[in-house]
Amino acid sequence: MKSQYRIFIYTFLFLVMITSCKNETTTPEQTSEPVIAKIDSDLVKVPESWITDRVAKAKQKLTATPAGSIVWNAMEAHGGLANWYSKGPIAFHFDYKPLDGSTQRNTYQTVDMWRNTARHQHADDRSQEFGWDGKKAWAKTTDSTAFKYNMRFWALTPYYFLAQPFVLDGQGVNLEQLEDKVFKDKLYDVIKVTFSEGTGDAPDDYYVLYFGKEDHQLGVIRYIVSYPGYFEKGKHLPEKFMELQGTTTINGITLSTGYHTHWLQEDETPGEHITTITVDDISFQPSAKKSYLQVPEGATILEGLK
User: Fold this and answer.
1) Distance between CA atoms of 204 and 197, rounded to whole angstroms?
2) 154 lies in a domain?
3) Tens digit of pLDDT for each residue in 116-159?
4) What's the domain count of the chain?
C-alpha cells in the first residue's frame, strides 16, 4: 500500500514538474509598455509624447499638398510646430486701437494653445477678467463697463492672429494656394484658409495669408469677420488687410509685435488705415496650472453668442 502511495506521489510530482516547465517555455516574454513622460497632472503643459504624435500627424497631412507644404515651411520658419507646443501656454498683452475712436480692446491674456482655453485681464485693472474654458465664456467683473464688447468673440480672436501659422494644424482647416502676390517689393506665396462646417463659432470666416517666397515668414493677414453673434448666415464685414509691424523671437518662436489694419481695396491692396494693434510682454508659461484657465469661483457664465 505504501509503495503504491509512493508511486502516486512521485507520479504526481513528476507531472507537476513537467507542467511547470511547459508553462515556463510557452509563456511569452513580458515586454514593458512605452514610457510616457510623467508630468504634474495640474500643469497645463502636455507630455512630449503627445506633442510628437500631433506634430507627426500635422506634418504628414500638410506636406501631402502644395498649399499645406507652404504652411508647414512657414511653421518651420517661425520656430517649428514641436517647439511651439512644447513651451506651455502663451501670455501676451494685446492692445487693439480703432482709429475712429470706437471701443479699444486692451487686455493681458494667457492662452493654452493645446486646448484653446483663455483668460483675459483688463490692462488698467487686472481684477476685471473674462475667458473661455473650451466650452463656455465667462466673466468676473465688478465694473460693468470694463469690457464693452463681445467677450466670447474676443476670447480667442487675438490669439488666432498672433499664433499664425501654428493654428493651422487642426481639424477642419482647409488650405488653398492662390496666385503669388507682390507687396512692398516682396514676393509672397498666398494661402487661403477656410473652415469646415461646425469648426468653431464662425466656420464661414476665412483668412488669406502671405508667406515670403524666400524666408517663408508671414507678412500679411487678410480676413473677414462672419461671427454669428454679429451677422446673419452668409453675411460678414468687408475683407480687411492686416500688415505685420515687426516681429520678435521668444524661446525660438517668431511672433508679430503689432499690426496695421486697413480696408481691402478692389485691387487687393490696403486702403484706409482703420486699426493699430500692438503686442508686447510675450512669454511662455510652462508652470501654468490648469485651474488658471478654468472658470474661476464667482464668475458669471455668458450665455449665447452675444
Assistant:
1) 8
2) yes
3) 999 999 999 999 999 999 999 999 999 999 999 999 989 999 99
4) 1
Cell numbers that stand for 246 in this block: 515687426
Could you report the per-residue pLDDT of 242-271, keeping only the tens digit for each? Answer: 999 999 999 999 999 999 999 999 999 999
Query: b/e string for 105-139 if b means 16 or more Cβ within 10 A?
Result: bebbbbbbbeebbbbbbbeeeeebbbbbbeeebbb
Domain-located, residue 61: yes
b/e per residue, 209-222, with b = 16+ CB within 10 A?
bbbbeeebbbbbbb
Tell me the pTM: 0.83
Host domain of residue 58: 48-124+148-294
Q: Is residue 34 part of a domain?
A: no
Residue 305 lies in a domain: no
* Alpha carbons 110 and 29: distance in angstroms, whole number: 48
Q: In the predicted model, what is the mean pLDDT of residues 21-35?
A: 33
